TrEMBL record, chain A:
Natural source organism: Alloalcanivorax marinus
Function: Two distinct, membrane-bound, FAD-containing enzymes are responsible for the catalysis of fumarate and succinate interconversion; the fumarate reductase is used in anaerobic growth, and the succinate dehydrogenase is used in aerobic growth.
Membership in a protein family: Belongs to the succinate dehydrogenase/fumarate reductase iron-sulfur protein family.
GO biological process: respiratory electron transport chain; tricarboxylic acid cycle
Entry keywords, A to Z: 2Fe-2S, 3Fe-4S, 4Fe-4S, Electron transport, Iron, Iron-sulfur, Metal-binding, Oxidoreductase, Transport, Tricarboxylic acid cycle
MF terms (GO), sorted A to Z: 2 iron, 2 sulfur cluster binding; 3 iron, 4 sulfur cluster binding; 4 iron, 4 sulfur cluster binding; electron transfer activity; metal ion binding; succinate dehydrogenase (quinone) activity
Name of this chain's protein: Succinate dehydrogenase iron-sulfur subunit
Cofactor or coenzyme needed: [2Fe-2S] cluster; [3Fe-4S] cluster; [4Fe-4S] cluster
Catalytically driven reaction(s): a quinone + succinate = fumarate + a quinol
Keyword Iron part of the UniProt annotation: yes
EC primary class: oxidoreductase
Metabolic or biological pathway: Carbohydrate metabolism; tricarboxylic acid cycle; fumarate from succinate (bacterial route): step 1/1
EC number: 1.3.5.1
One Pfam family hit: Fer4_17
From TrEMBL, chain B:
UniProt-recorded name of the protein: Succinate dehydrogenase hydrophobic membrane anchor subunit
Pathway(s) annotated for this protein in UniProt: Carbohydrate metabolism; tricarboxylic acid cycle
UniProt superkingdom: Bacteria
Membrane topology: Multi-pass membrane protein
Gene: sdhD
Segments passing through the bilayer: 20-39, 59-79, 99-120
UniProtKB/TrEMBL annotation, chain C:
Binding site for FAD: 14-19, 37-52, 223, 391, 407-408
Keyword Calcium found: no
CC terms in the record's Gene Ontology section: plasma membrane
Pathway: Carbohydrate metabolism; tricarboxylic acid cycle; fumarate from succinate (bacterial route): step 1/1
Stated name of the protein: Succinate dehydrogenase flavoprotein subunit
Recorded topology in the membrane: Peripheral membrane protein
The reaction(s) this protein catalyses: a quinone + succinate = fumarate + a quinol
Primary enzyme class: oxidoreductase
Principal cellular location given in the protein's record: membrane
GO biological process: anaerobic respiration; electron transport chain; tricarboxylic acid cycle
Fumarate reductase/succinate dehydrogenase flavoprotein-like C-terminal domain location: 463-591
Ranges where the FAD-dependent oxidoreductase 2 FAD-binding domain occurs: 9-408
Amino acid sequence: MKVSIYRYNPDTDREPTMKEYEVDTQGKDLMVLDILALVKEQDESLSYRRSCREGVCGSDGMNINGKNGLACITPLSEVAPGVKEGKKPLVLRPLPGLPVIRDLVVDMGVFYEQYEKVQPYLQNQSPAPAIERLQSPEERAKLDGLYECILCACCSTSCPSFWWNPEKFLGPAALLQSYRFLADSRDDATEERLSRLDDPFSLFRCRGIMNCVSVCPKGLNPTRAIGHIRSMLLERGV
Amino acid sequence: MVTSVTSLGRNGLYDWLIQRVSAVVMGVYVIGLLGYLLAHPDLDYGTWAAFMGSLPMQIANTLLLFSVAAHTWVGLWTVTTDYLTRLALGGAATGVRLVAQALIGLLLLVYILWGLLMIWGGA
Amino acid sequence: MSIRTITFDAIVVGGGGAGMRASLQMAQSGFKTALISKVFPTRSHTVSAQGGITCAIASADPNDDWRWHMYDTVKGSDYIGDQDAIEYMCQVGPEAVFELDHMGLPFSRTEEGRIYQRPFGGQSKNFGEGGQAARTCAAADRTGHALLHTLYQQNLKNGTQFYNEWYAAELVKDANENVCGVIAISIETGETVFFKAKATVFATGGSGRIYSSTTNALINTGDGVGMALRAGVPVQDIEMWQFHPTGIAGAGVLVTEGCRGEGGYLINKDGERFMERYAPNAKDLASRDVVARSMMMEILDGRGDGPDGNYVYLKLDHLGEEVLHSRLPGICELAITFAGTDPVKEPIPVVPTCHYMMGGIPTNVHGQALKMSGGHEGEDQIVNGLFAVGEVACVSVHGANRLGGNSLLDLVVFGRAAGLYIEDALRQGMTQYEPSNDDIEAALTRVNRWNDSKGGESVHSLRKELQTTMQNHFGVFRKGDLMEEGVQKLADLRGRIAKAHLDDKSSAFNMARVEALELDNLLEVAEATAIAAYNRTESRGAHSRYDYPDRDDENWLCHSIYDPRTKQLGKREVNFKPKTVETFQPKVRTY
């Protein structure tokens, strides 16, 4: 099958190019990451990030035939019809909207900065008990669909609002984490967290496009979390 | 978290609310007007002028005018801050955006004054 | 060549659970701490831990006792776990776990609002007399993920200085073998820097990538072990490799033991629940070495399924969709993605897969690295300036076989312990050893070797050969002649890797350079494993030999110590002197 990969090495290239490779999959429905490993055997100069190869570390987010996803849990058959059979090329590009360091590796600095801005850690002023802070299963259930985020950036880099204002709009990933702490019964910094979010950019740049929902490899729903935060702001504001 | 903003409410929640409330006003107005037109198939200028000149309609038109202006301002302000940015235009972005926003603001102001003249000037 | 020097009070190499727990401790006390990680910290392999963290917090059973946990751990280790270290871990454990909750870790909950605990293999009540215990604290089946993110978040809060995507290449020592810091390379820019510190903490994790089939992440290349061995620091019990019973056949992806804790069980191709034959009491919740061996025996006896008859099944469908989706949601995803089977409907094809390195750099409970006065034998001596925590370390709490859920506990307890010790030592004034230019130059040799290489075999083909050798010669069952052959193959590989070629010498995000440097480490770990496995002439825990099928307490109730300088294997005493409880005497180990 044919693979077309975005190549750019700042040491040697003036501008990026798409490079074609021919890979023999023996008809197997390999994961996109397996294809990258096969390409790397041909051309060791190809760089990309990878670690757990099972969809939990979030290293290998990339743009696969136009849609963001994790290379390690995207089988060829799910990329697009005809790719696995070799009728259509597999096209791999770095995540859109972030500066490219090299090949499929992007500079995620601004993505991480936005994450840090939501104070992604539990805050509780009351002294800790000798055992755990109690939490009912119902309260804990509110964190499901939030804490599972792997910070792969597939969502934020598919969000037009994040493309336009990456430094001002927090983006779906950071907002999902913001709500993860707002929703935690053990956290008591709700007021402080909300007051940091009510400017016109940080949260309100979400236009409900829902690209984030459609690409999230963990099946999470940042748009819904953003809606919950907006409701909390509304309740607090009026 | 983002502090230097020139939006209407100077606050995301209020901008968001203004956008929604003004939309409701415009929606109700349009439906009401449509209803009136349907109920008066043989409308002539005299009836129409009298209807528009009535106090309830003067108030409704004023509300509509301010809603349109507010809605437009919030909407276009957002558009300018989405597209007329450093990312898209480079260093000149702030200047270009300010000029665009000033023009929009000025135009809206003119519309408001003109509209008010139309609504209340004849009385 | 002179390179930039960056100075810290302490540096931690590795951003997994152990590293971030150690750095958190030191950052909280205000010392200048850097954490160097070759990946963004939440991409570390701790993220893949599923089932939970075993600890006697007395939630599932209000009468639970850390001593029972200690008993299980000693027995699980096949009696070569150090009892003082196990005692410390089990006793301090609850405090460390409650701290995690206070930091925000989203544990699953019981109706009482306490942390949910599930049964895991090798767990018992009342010193093996009271039946199966449920002692593993869980956040669904994503405990490692939840733990790692929580620790990263806390490090952000406390101002740890992160050097993410920096690759630590070599230890820097002074003329007296004191550790002064590490050489590290910025992967993004290619810059090589000397990180100088009073304390260098290795938290580099495991090395499962020496095998071709492993549950380990692609980054688990034994960088810490490699650096230690090249610096002349010995490793302990390195022949002890855990094969996890349930890796997805073909893919190697882990399926948590928590599946069996929740009531799942293994069946062979005839649908028989075969563990009833091998471990009549604990059945599928016998310890991992026992279950893995039983599975291999089924397969070797022709009761495996599949085209090559080389896997058995993990049956979960009888648990029902609701339990599976609430307790094991991640497993359901993984099984569908990597095995193409939905556990709600069909069993998952599984096979024992390399999972965990019980051995590593010998340390005391403070994380201080140890060496032997006579190389591979003699008295314990502290390696000044060097600490090791987590999987790279061998404290030893796991001995010859680790119990499920004990690795996460090991991480937080000993990451914390090392942090506490260093904090204290820094307050009292720790020595900064100063390397000479020659010392730094010596540490750069290997990096320069690759950068100057001009032709030779490629990294990926050599790596593949190494992994295949380990897989074929040092697997679940081992045999003297086969291992001898394996040792020779590795010696041959050593010669060839020393002449291997790095074609891409560019500076920006050069993944090929990192993989080349990793290959050296894989080789160090593989060779140490091979020599230690060949020389330990008995079967104990995860080390199982056809030619020496029995445990030999007379000769081998001890740690093995591999000295990289002489490639000799020596013995080191196991600690049988816990401070607050009676010694657990070695017994025949049955489940």
